[in-house]
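lol forgot to send this yesterday, sorry. struct tokens for the thing we talked abt
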């Protein structure tokens, strides 16, 4: 019975423990069930299956688009997006997997054969968790396998594009078959086909789509006109060239060249691109016409830009506004040569696109590129042969050798490469000569503009600088310093605009640039530290926004709220300063958070900083804490007259590290706050400006002391700055060695007027004593010397003996004979 009873109790205890364990597992189970319902493995498995199917389609597309660089770039961008989403699936289930493992460890292993069975609920829970764990492991494995597959496809695309670019430049064509009579016949045949294509499209547009075509052209023209006219109206002073001005500044020349090139080019770009977009939106274009028209628009825009840039840089009609120091005849020649180079290159690319759309024979494309390459090479040689400079005798001389020989080499190399049949490489070279050369020239002008802006006084005297100073009320120094910021922004814009365009000319696609820019701006890894340029830039912007908002709030609070509440100026200063530092600290914290910086990673730096504070920054911390105490306790405030450490003056500002004191000589003394805390500080205006002024006066023995008192009290009482209650008082201080010493005591409403009152009363006292015959004595001493020393002194009358100490006369003798002088016999041995 006892044994059975003991077994019954043990079994009940086990049941109780199992029930408690089940109770403790209910909440985690509910939470996990909630998570599972939000993102169940079944739904994620279906999503991964869709992604895997899409990856198979992209794999087939890669095989079909091996010769299409733009298509490969688009596929690569899709694969990079898929890689990120697959990685998200793998990361998303790891917390759930860890939670399942913890709960399985809490449940423990199932009971053995000789052990009592566990509750059925626990067994079912263990089986459910094990099944879910297996599903999640399978899902994570599938996601990782899919991620590896996608990364391999991305690497394959990079290899295909690199091989495609190499094949394009290194492929050799047989040019002999492209120079025959049949080529000319095929050209006229393709020209007729092109004429028929466009004539049919024009007839169709005129007959059926004339209204939307006219509307699209009209809206595009209006948009371009708004940009051009508005730009000339707003930037008009920056576009004007005064022919009578002999020596315009270099910054003015750069400004005119930049804006007079940018605005017309921008207006034309808006007109052409908006026209093409609206034609496509209103179904006016057909596929073949759209491709040829888009290339024609690009050629027109590039040629216009190159011609405009050459005209503004060389300025053949305005020698004084020329950026490059060349003679006028050479400037005209260079403009024509550069424009002809751009036109021929553009026609070559337009022919290539047209022949590709029409399905023309390959020999037409080879012949057109060969002729264009040879012509461009000859034009480049002609540019190098121009003699734009003048020697000392005024005769034309060629370019410097360092410029002339590379230009000759580039032109000759282009012709030779074309005749050897490397048409792709020749076309690539002439494209870089024209387009990349124009981009680099524009970037160089931008860099020169940035350097010119940083010159002292350049931005300050510019039209924009003068306008900024007038609008925002800035000083000349502030406007001049803004030139540094403007220069930095110009350099950033030049790089952000020029580098992508150059990369496009060198065979890269917009997708490549977007991917690189995104990866660079999102995350940069330096060792184990990673940061984001976008995050840092965002954090800096957030901090400065918070900083300026704090300053605006301080100004509003001080001028609007505190000024009307009749709060003491010291309290206002303390509140304003405290809010300023609190706002800056808050802005810094928010900026750090926006930048994505993990503050926990700064724990080591904070520890080292604390150690540095303990050893080397004690004074700084002491001054900082003392400043906080001064702001809170306010023993003095801005405007108070204090005396501290041998410095006497007016408090101008109380900062957290030091206090600014302006002496009466207008010298500003920066006194550390710790000295104001640890030493005695006298404050004449602590509670109020009421203060007592003491004026010492001495009169000769024998004067009427009562009359002296009456005169002093009368003069003090009649002064407008001396208050009547308490009344002025005269104190007979002492019987001095040479005078009767009095002290005039009076109170002022504003102790800062002490010098004025003392000065006025001294003049008045002197005049009153003169009228009353009261003498103001000065110290006098008579010394009688006898013996050998006296004779020696008589022999040298020019040497005067130093005054010796004398005994003052007794008080009674001094009162009876005030004119009596004290005498002392000096021992010759002294």
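and heres what i got for the seq, position by position
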């Amino acid at each position: 019975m006892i044994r059975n009873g003991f077994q019954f109790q043990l079994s009940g205890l086990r049941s109780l423990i199992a029930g408690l364990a089940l109770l403790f597992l209910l909440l985690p189970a509910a939470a996990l069930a909630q998570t599972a319902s939000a993102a169940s493995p079944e739904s994620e498995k279906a999503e991964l299956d869709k992604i895997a199917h899409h990856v198979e389609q992209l794999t087939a597309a890669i095989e079909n688009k091996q010769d299409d660089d733009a298509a490969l770039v688009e596929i690569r961008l899709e694969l990079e997006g898929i890689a990120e989403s697959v990685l998200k699936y793998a990361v998303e289930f790891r917390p759930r997997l860890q939670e399942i493992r913890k709960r399985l460890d809490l449940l423990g292993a199932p009971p053995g054969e000789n052990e009592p069975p566990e509750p059925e609920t626990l067994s079912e829970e263990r089986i459910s968790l094990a099944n879910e764990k297996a599903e999640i492991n399978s899902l994570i494995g599938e996601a990782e396998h899919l991620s590896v597959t996608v990364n391999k496809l991305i690497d394959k695309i990079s290899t295909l594009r690199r091989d495609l670019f190499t094949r394009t430049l290194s492929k050799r064509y047989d040019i002999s078959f492209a120079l025959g009579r049949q080529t000319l016949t095929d050209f006229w045949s393709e020209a007729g086909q092109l004429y028929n294509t466009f004539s049919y499209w024009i007839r169709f547009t005129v007959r059926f789509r004339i209204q939307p075509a006219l509307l699209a052209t009209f809206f595009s023209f209006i948009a371009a006109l708004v940009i051009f006219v508005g730009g000339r109206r707003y930037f008009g002073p920056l576009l004007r060239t005064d022919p009578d001005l002999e020596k315009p500044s270099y910054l003015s020349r750069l400004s005119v060249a930049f804006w007079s090139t940018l605005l017309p080019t921008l207006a034309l770009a808006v007109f052409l691109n908006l026209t093409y977009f609206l034609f496509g939106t209103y179904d006016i274009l057909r596929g073949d016409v759209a491709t040829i028209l888009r290339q024609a628009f690009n050629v027109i825009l590039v040629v216009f830009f190159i011609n405009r840039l050459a005209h503004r840089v060389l300025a053949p009609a305005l020698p004084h506004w020329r950026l490059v120091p060349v003679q006028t005849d050479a400037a005209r020649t260079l403009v024509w040569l550069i424009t002809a180079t751009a036109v021929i290159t553009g026609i070559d690319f337009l022919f290539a696109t047209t022949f590709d759309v029409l399905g023309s024979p390959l020999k037409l494309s080879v012949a057109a590129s060969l002729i264009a390459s040879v012509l461009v090479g000859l034009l480049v040689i002609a540019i190098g042969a121009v003699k734009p400079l003048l020697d000392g005798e005024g005769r034309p001389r060629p370019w410097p050798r360092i410029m002339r020989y590379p230009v000759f080499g580039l032109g000759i190399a282009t012709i030779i490469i074309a005749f050897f049949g490397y048409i792709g490489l020749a076309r690539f070279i002439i494209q870089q000569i024209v387009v990349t050369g124009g981009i680099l020239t524009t970037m160089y002008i931008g860099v020169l503009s940035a350097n010119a802006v940083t010159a002292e006084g350049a931005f300050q005297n510019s039209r924009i600088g003068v306008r900024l100073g007038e609008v925002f009320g800035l000083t000349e120094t502030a406007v001049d310093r803004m030139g540094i910021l403007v220069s930095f922004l110009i350099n950033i814009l030049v790089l952000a605009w020029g580098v992508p365009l150059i990369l496009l000319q060198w065979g890269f696609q917009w997708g490549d640039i977007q991917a690189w820019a995104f990866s660079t701006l999102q995350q940069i890894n330096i060792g184990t530290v990673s940061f984001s340029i976008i995050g840092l830039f965002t954090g800096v912007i957030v901090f400065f926004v918070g900083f300026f908002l704090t300053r605006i709030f301080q100004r509003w609070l001080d001028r609007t709220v505190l000024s009307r509440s009749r709060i003491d100026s010291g309290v206002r200063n303390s509140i304003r300063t405290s809010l300023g530092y609190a706002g800056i600290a808050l802005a810094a914290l928010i900026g750090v958070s926006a930048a994505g910086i993990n503050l926990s990673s700064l724990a080591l730096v904070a520890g080292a900083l604390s150690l540095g504070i303990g050893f080397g920054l004690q004074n700084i911390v002491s001054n900082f804490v003392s400043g906080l105490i001064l702001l809170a306790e306010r023993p003095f405030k801005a405007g108070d007259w204090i005396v501290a450490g041998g410095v006497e003056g007016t408090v101008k500002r109380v900062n957290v590290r030091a206090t600014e004191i302006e002496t009466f000589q207008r010298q500003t003394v920066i006194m550390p706050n710790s000295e104001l805390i640890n030493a005695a500080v006298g404050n004449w205006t602590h509670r109020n400006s009421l203060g007592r002024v003491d004026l010492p006066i001495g009169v000769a023995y024998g004067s009427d002391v009562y009359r002296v008192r009456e005169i002093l009290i009368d003069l003090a009482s009649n002064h407008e700055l001396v208050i009547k209650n308490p009344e002025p008082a005269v104190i007979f201080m002492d019987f001095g060695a040479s005078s009767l010493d009095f002290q005039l005591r009076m109170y002022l409403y504003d102790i800062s007027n002490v010098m004025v009152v003392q000065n006025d009363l001294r003049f008045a006292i002197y005049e009153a004593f003169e009228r009353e015959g009261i003498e103001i004595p000065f110290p006098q001493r008579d010394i009688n010397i006898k013996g050998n020393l006296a004779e020696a002194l008589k022999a040298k009358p020019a040497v005067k003996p130093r005054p010796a100490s004398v005994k003052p006369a007794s008080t009674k003798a001094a009162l009876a004979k005030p004119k009596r002088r004290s005498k002392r016999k000096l021992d010759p041995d002294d």
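Confidence is low (pLDDT under 50) at residues 1-38, 802-830. anyway ping me if u want another try
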